[in-house]
Amino acid sequence: RYNNVESGPWCFTTDPNTRWELCPVPQCPTPPSLPPPMLPPPPVPPASPPVPPSEPPSQPPPPSFPPPPRAPPSPRPPVLPPWVDTGTSVHGSDGKSIGCPTSLASSGALTTFTFTNTSQAMLEASTCDPAEHELDGFAVATWNEDGICWGCCRYAYGHFFAEVGTLAAVSGSDELLYRAVRLHPPARDPDNWAHASSLLYVRFSNTNSSQAVYSYNGQAFDLVTTVSAADASKGQLINTQHNVNTISSPAIFFVTDASRRPTTFHQFTSKVEASQVHCDMGVGGKHGLSVVGVRYANKFQYDSISAVPTEPSTYHVPIHNHYHKYGTKKEFFGVRRFDGSEGVVWQDKNTRQIALTWFGPDWLSPQSVALESLGPNWKLVGAAGDGGVTGDVIYVLVGDKALWNASSHNDAQEPTPAYAFRAGADGAKKLRVELDTWDTGLNIHDGWYGSMAWDAPLDVFVLFIARGMFTGHQGAIAVVFNATDLSITKNTGQTSSHSFAQSVTLSTEANGATFIGADMGDNYPRGLNLHRIERSESGTWTRKSRVVYSFKTGHCSIDTSGLNATAKVLAVNGACHNYPVWDTDPLSRNISTPNRTYYKYSNDNNVYTELAHPGSIELPGGKLMVIFAGEQPSLDITMIGSAHNAPRNLGLVIVSATLNGTVFSDGPVETGGFYSFGGGWSPQENRGIVWLTDFTGSSVETWESATRIRATRVGSGAKEKVLLLYEVWQYNNYLRTEFMLIGLDGSILRDPTRLQYPLRLDPTGEPAAAADGSLVVYGAEDSRLTRFSLLPLADGQTCDCPKMPSPPTPPSLPSPPCIPPSTSPSPPPLLPPLLPPSPPSLPAPPASPPNPLNMIGATMSTQYGSADELGPWVCIDGDESTGPCHTNGGTDQWLSIELDRPATIDAVQVFNRGYPSLNIQNQLSRLGHYQIWVGSTAADYTPPSATLCANETTAPWGSATVGPFTSRCAPGTVGRFVTVLLPGSNRYLTLNEVKIYGAAVHPPALPSPPDLPPIPPSTPPPPLAPPSPPVPPSLPQPPSSPPIGCVNGVGDGYNAERYEGWVATTISGKTCQAWADQSPHVHTYNTSSGWSGVGKPEGNLCRNPGKAGWATATRYNNVESGPWCFTTDPNTRWELCPVPQCPTPPSLPPPMLPPPPVPPASPPVPPSEPPSQPPPPSFPPPPRAPPSPRPPVLPPWVDTGTSVHGSMPPSLPPTLPPSSPPPSAPPISPSVISASTGSATADVHMIGLRSGKFDLKGKHGMLYALLSSPEVAVSARFESASFKLPPDDPRSGFIKKVHGSFMSEVYILMRLPSECVIHVTYTASTPDQALVQIFHDGLRKPADDYLDIYSVGHTDFESAVRVELLQMRQNRFALNVTSADWKIHIFPGSYLHQDGTHHRHVDVKITPTLAAVKDPVAPHGLIGQSLHDPIAIQGKIDHYVPDDAGEFTTSAQGEGAVEGSVEDYEIHGGPLSTAFRFSRFGSIKGASRDVAKLSGLKLPISTLSHLGGAALADRQLD
């Protein structure tokens, strides 16, 4: 199908895993009816369209094959989402990493060992003296179970052929060489019957250490015994107590030092070993499976826990055993943490300590913590996690009656105590509640086993627990609990009598508030019973149950041989249970024998069936698949007599999830019934049973049966299926472990297949689902915690596990353009670059280079000391005598400076560290070798995206010379960021000042913004000033006073002082602090100081108080830098403001220039004293002329074409036509480019990208999408909280408590050029760490890392994304995640909880770059959706008004300011999900929202201030 010419151009790729792909050739735009002015001639089309080959070449063309010339280069193609079918599904790899479900990609297959024979002999084992039957230190002797010598051959096996030699790894390592014996099965059977054991003996020589004996089965080692050093050193034959009678094939035993732990797995660390234990690619390349196993240290000694996980004794319990029949206690309970990490709750087998183990992202660093426990007399019956919302776990302990001291526990009268616990992910105790287990409560006289599930958003969990009751009966109950206080919400009553193998799961298909349970009952009802527990619309909990599979029943029988009718006695297996049968009648069905009569009475505790775990699997369309192992025919009451009467085969039935009786699977109908112990008839019917296996056998000793079944859904979409994992047993013996794959309709996709490794399963353990879609099974091999991950392979995938190399850098080849039809004979000229070229040459630099550029911000690689004193802003404060800015040292230290607009960089001056004014010569320079780079993003020093301006060695390290050192850039060096780099390791960057010189680049004039709908003013507008008479065009008249809404170029020092505009936010979007306020920043700028002239500070507006009347000389008084303000952010003292530059007045007015306005007769007189607080929103501004709505504030790099008089020139046709955007591209207007920083802070106050404000409470534990673009997704988790206002908040006097919410976690996904996705997790609980993960096609790559402020502070990915963790000051951290499109800044804060303690939260700021603005796909999310708005939209804001109790509850949900409702922004798929109603991640289309449809208040941009509750909350709560 790849030769599908309709799909477009394609090529073979140089990636061995991808055979071919389509090429990103852009669509041709519709040609205009008339060419625009000065349209360049179109290109000449080829003589004829290229004819695609009938077949692609058998090999990809060599990389050096030149493509046909194209012009001009096309823009970067849109990134296709992963579900877009590019046509490569058949002939090429789909890009998924297969066979490597975890980051242990290099684990490889199991180590293979080979046996080499050096001697051999027949060991007769005919006597009890092992020395008589020894070969080179190995012997076999015969003893009976009572320790009595029974020699050959009446009751013992004999004649064991033995080979002695060495067992060695195929690698030939001396460390993996063992002395071994290979024993063959006995050649002689007992003459009578087997009543003795043939035991293996071993002689140890020349040893002073403890020894161990292991067996080897070809895949794994099993410990046989250990021998102390004292016994091993005696040189005698030691009895291993291992019976070799039953070996059915040659078995290998070997000896090693007990301190060594042989393994077939690969050792990764001293505590972790792993291997790929199974891999096959299926039949015909379909339905393959990869299994990776990880085994951890035999003892955990992390943090406060030192314990050994319980090895389930049921590993070795056969099916017919009574202990196995009832099911067993679950040993492992899978949970998940907020950062996506997987974990498991388990219990120590010796001390019964409860442990919680978290597996790190690389699976090699497990961390275990001790949970609150109650001692050795308590057992863990259930545990559940909140699904990763916080990582909390809830677990239940029940007293083990078998271990109680009889003197302290009255078995006849007292219940078994039980406790419920809640703990944090770190093991911290949160709550412990004793449960009411009396007969009037949960009625637990003897607690058994259980299963749990937790619905975190709903804050409830369900416990299924089987128990013995005070009445002497047994059964399970299903109980709904409140997860917050662990109180009982609803006891739904008994599920089934006796209840075998309980299972409960949280429904994923239902719309919340639903649990699905399953168990098996022997009576009331008798059968496999499903349960649906759900909350009704009224809020009450109900349970609905239905039997979906029935099994046969054994009836009461009396052994009548030799007995008379009046002396009937109970048969051993008659199921009569001491009930009289005098009045019962024989069964009408003739199954009686001459010696045994069956009656119409039963109390059969056998169920002849085993339930899979989980008990049911939810399917699309409201269906449940139930899988089990049963005996056939299922209702044949003649096939009874023991717990196991026939081979047990796998079966399934698919039923309605509503449990209304509908059966969807296609199977026969089987009918039957039984007589209950009341003598009544109970009919039975099985419908739709589909049998999956066909085990047979001639006797109980030879037939095979499926047992210990695990099942889960895997895959997605049309390829979704069900994976079954189970063991196969033969009476007392485990044979093998198999898997199957079946379709969602019950059809068999992969026949039963034996695993290459003997993966052992306990009967009732619940599997877990890993992030990569695999089935996870926990266990304990050799008392070591084990984790096996089973990942079905996609069709055609292989089992190789290569490490993923970084994608190669593609050659710099022009992309094919779209060639419109044309008949023009001449090719078009290349379009000129967007930025004008620099002059061909520059004059020699003067002593002080001219044209300084406006520096508006700076960042550094690391921070040494206090950011207030040594932060990057110190190096751009205009004072070369103060400093330095100081990094914390490391590799490639840098200082990156942001200009207010792109510029042609002519020269850069660097002032070295030094203090000449203080003449301290011992403060020597550390500059040394440095480089200067110019680029379009911060900290970019990688070509070709950045240009090297200079590579300097003029300031040797240790020099006391301050400089300046001037570097000249090559002509045409253009960028907006200048980075000073110290290449190399172990270096510190310490500078006093950097100055940059050049010429700002002005982009072409933009069209006028669209007309805005009229906005009703809250107060009457000021009166209009009378217009001045028209001025002839030939006589341009400059303004009589400096403009008030813009500033001239830096350098004159006066116009910036006179700025009297209305900008009240800084360049990073922070709100300005009122000049009259002394909080959060104390300063000496006092509004009571004398002031004359224009530009007086007022309210919280940006100003530049400098020379005129302000005596304070501080570093902030840099009048050349432009207007600035103190900020309301406690962490940022001051910042410059984004005041637009005034354009240079033209020498002649443009044609039809409207007359300039007449300035007012005199400037307005400001009040003698500004208010102590910022003016309220309704405060009318001073009269201005001309009277017009305040225009949107544009960032300084946007040239609106406005003249010095403030008028707009008429629209002129462009010199060249603009490039045609894709059809779905939203229009880009001047207002679009003037986007500022959006934020989500405190409890929770939102500011959009166009300055619109709203509050949003959200739901507890819910993830909300803040930003969604094709390349970037940002979400945050909300947590409800009740808190107090700080004492310095004036509202704290009348508001005692606020019930609101905060953000506790932030998740960021960014797509890299290689199509990998970076996932960053940052939480309030660990502000000094950030988890960074890489995913490729949904599979995590082995590059996960934890960033922390103490070691690795930042990391870069493909020169496209930087993740940087900063320490702003002591115990104050921040995280920056930057791409070419977006800058995400996350910083933690705190609030005063109602209990008086300080809790943490996180705040988020989101800033778009010009690339984001120009992206044809409009972003969305709570913050991102406002990027293209022409006006600011103010939504609902919480106004703090207390109730009668002095409390206030927030309620705003963004009404009026967001498209749709807040529920549309909920993310239910976990931290890795980007799915919500308006998701743009991976999209190639997406229009901007229509603000006319929003009901919020529509205001001019940048005029909003915090209103209501937000006014103080943003300032006080951090």
What do you see in this structure?
- This protein is mainly β and 1518 residues long.
- It is 2% helix and 34% strand.
- The chain has six helices and 78 strands.
- It has a 17-stranded mixed β-sheet that branches. Strands 50, 51, 52, 53, 54, 55, 56 and 57 form an eight-stranded antiparallel β-sheet that branches. The chain has a six-stranded antiparallel β-sheet with strand order 3-6-7-12-9-10.
- Strand 14 (272-280) and strand 15 form a beta hairpin.
- The N terminus and C terminus are likely disordered.
Q: Which tags fit this structure?
A:
about 1500 residues; mainly beta; eight-stranded antiparallel sheet; 6 helices; 78 strands; globular; disordered N terminus
- Low-confidence parts, pLDDT < 50 over ≥5 residues? 1-6, 31-106, 405-410, 560-575, 578-583, 801-849, 915-925, 1003-1044, 1049-1054, 1107-1120, 1145-1234, 1503-1518
Structural class: mainly beta
The description of the largest β-sheet is: 17 strands, mixed
Q: Could you estimate the helical fraction of the residues in percent?
A: under 10%
Count the DSSP helices. 6
Looking at the structure, what is the overall shape?
globular
